[in-house]
């Protein structure tokens, strides 16, 4: 019997099929989810969706059987994106489960769980209890008493059109000029959601968009490339297609289509920090127009310094959090922030139950580009103000010792240090070019992750190389570095 602690992670379930995540395990997790999360929630039901992986339908069915066994009714929405499942949880006001392993290889699958209203379930909000009860059941120590209400029902419901109409209602594209857009779905769920939201597949009116599709066929074996746009190798086909078709921009979605990456007309990536700034400015204006007086935007510790600047310039308050969706969502709920963004291209919206949706971010980018005449590269320049290293990963056994050396390095230079998430060090002041960096440990591997940003490329390279020497214990040139997607 597998140990659930090996693949029930801090925020979700992610394991090999069937060695770790089997139908039996999914059933036990369904029973545990019903008991720990859904029944105390008091809403009386659970909604379940899944991605296009071959293992997803049987796993989600086994999970649903476990939930129904505990007397709760189940709504099966079938194929959907992760943000489509969040929509279902929010609109129906019931807890939810999404079967997906996002961008991981075809041999993996997983589950993202949420409470009613798309509130996250993580290690501090019920996932440990779900894991432990499921393990207890799998170990055969005992069974739970029969549900006093008998067995729940399982019914299918298609919410794709409702999801699409809801997103369209949050961003007005009616005044946009016509745009040519190449979209790489990576054989993931974007192949279902893009035709519905940006096209007419869900029965909605046509938008002023010409969509040129790449890899829209739903195929969980990912025959063309990994559905992970954070890795530059997976953007090559999109970049080529944007230039070949002389498109206005390109969009790339990951496997479960909750993240969206943007390519300009020259085939160059627009950083997620720049997209965060662009969408933040639009959401701030929208909130002000709706009567909000105090507006906040949440960002994590490794988004560009330009994000906080843009938020302040638009009369709102930036709030800085740790990296990770549970921290972003919790802070947004606490502060009522209108929007949140991460370096990894996760974008969170108050009007979407504080959950993340790459499709809504894409609609904002399309609207921002289409309502004026400049190309995207020029539009994005106002939000890409500094030079970043990208995330650089180093294998480090003595992480505490390395972090102490970094603190000492900062003290000698009179730099400021904070430890909200790892160690963030910022330049001393106006006497030198602006720079800052963050070093933080991976939750799952013996890695230290370094992100550096500076006012110019020369300063960024100097700080980057000094830090890599401290971290790796030897002189490091730019050619020695390896950047790995998170």
From TrEMBL:
Entries under SUPFAM superfamilies matching the protein: Phosphoglucomutase, C-terminal domain (SSF55957), Phosphoglucomutase, first 3 domains (SSF53738)
Class of this enzyme: isomerase
Domain of life of the source: Bacteria
Pfam families attached to this UniProt entry: PGM_PMM_I, PGM_PMM_II, PGM_PMM_III, PGM_PMM_IV
Cofactor: Mg(2+)
Keywords: Isomerase, Magnesium, Metal-binding, Phosphoprotein
Entry's EC annotation: 5.4.2.8
GO molecular function: metal ion binding; phosphomannomutase activity
Domain Alpha-D-phosphohexomutase alpha/beta/alpha: 9-124, 162-267, 278-386
Domain Alpha-D-phosphohexomutase C-terminal: from-to ranges: 392-469
GO biological process, one term: carbohydrate metabolic process
Stated family: Belongs to the phosphohexose mutase family.
Entry protein name: Phosphomannomutase
Originating species: Intrasporangium calvum (strain ATCC 23552 / DSM 43043 / JCM 3097 / NBRC 12989 / NCIMB 10167 / NRRL B-3866 / 7 KIP)
């Amino acid at each position: 019997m597998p140990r659930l602690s090996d693949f029930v992670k801090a925020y979700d379930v992610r394991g090999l099929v069937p060695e770790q995540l089997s139908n039996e395990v999914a059933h036990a997790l369904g029973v545990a989810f019903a008991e720990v999360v859904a029944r105390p929630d008091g809403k009386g039901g659970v909604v379940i969706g899944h991605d296009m992986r071959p293992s997803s339908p049987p796993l989600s069915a086994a999970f649903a059987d476990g939930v129904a066994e505990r007397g709760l009714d189940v709504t099966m929405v079938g194929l959907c994106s992760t943000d489509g499942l969040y929509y279902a949880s929010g609109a129906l006001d019931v807890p939810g489960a999404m079967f997906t392993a996002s961008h991981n290889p075809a041999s993996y699958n997983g589950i993202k769980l949420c409470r009613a209203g798309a509130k996250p379930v993580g290690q501090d909000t019920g996932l440990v209890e779900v894991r432990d009860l499921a393990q207890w059941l799998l170990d055969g120590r005992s069974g739970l008493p029969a549900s006093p209400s008998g067995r729940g029902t399982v019914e299918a419901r298609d919410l794709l059109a409702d999801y699409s109409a809801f997103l369209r209602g949050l961003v007005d594209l009616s005044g946009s000029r016509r745009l040519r857009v190449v979209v790489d779905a990576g054989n993931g769920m974007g192949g279902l959601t893009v035709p519905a939201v940006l096209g007419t597949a869900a029965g909605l009116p046509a938008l002023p968009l010409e969509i040129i599709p790449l890899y829209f066929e739903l195929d969980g074996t990912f025959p063309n490339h990994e559905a992970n746009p954070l890795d530059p190798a997976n953007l090559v086909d999109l970049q080529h297609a944007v230039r070949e078709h002389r498109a206005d921009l390109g969009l790339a979605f990951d496997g479960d289509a909750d993240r969206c990456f943007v390519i300009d007309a020259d085939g160059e990536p627009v950083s997620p920090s720049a997209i965060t700034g662009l969408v933040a400015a639009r959401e701030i204006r929208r909130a002000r127009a709706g009567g909000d007086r105090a507006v906040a935007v949440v960002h994590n510790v490794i988004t560009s310094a330009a994000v906080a600047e843009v938020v302040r310039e638009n009369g709102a308050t930036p709030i800085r959090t740790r990296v990770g969706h549970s921290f972003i969502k919790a802070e947004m709920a606490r502060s009522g922030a209108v929007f949140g963004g991460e370096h990894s291209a996760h974008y969170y919206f108050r009007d979407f139950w504080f959950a993340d949706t790459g499709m809504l971010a894409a609609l904002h980018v399309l609207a921002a580009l289409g309502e004026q005449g400049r190309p995207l590269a020029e539009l994005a320049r106002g939000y890409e103000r500094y030079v970043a290293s990208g995330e650089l990963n180093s294998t480090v056994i003595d992480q505490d010792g390395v972090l102490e050396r970094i603190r000492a390095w900062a003290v000698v230079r009179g730099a400021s240090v904070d430890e909200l998430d790892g160690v963030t060090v910022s330049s001393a002041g106006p006497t030198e070019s602006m720079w800052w960096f963050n070093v933080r440990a991976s939750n799952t591997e013996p890695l230290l992750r370094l992100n550096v940003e500076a006012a110019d490329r020369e300063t960024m390279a100097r700080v980057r190389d000094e830090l890599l020497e401290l971290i790796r214990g030897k002189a490091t040139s730019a050619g020695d570095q390896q950047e790995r997607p998170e």
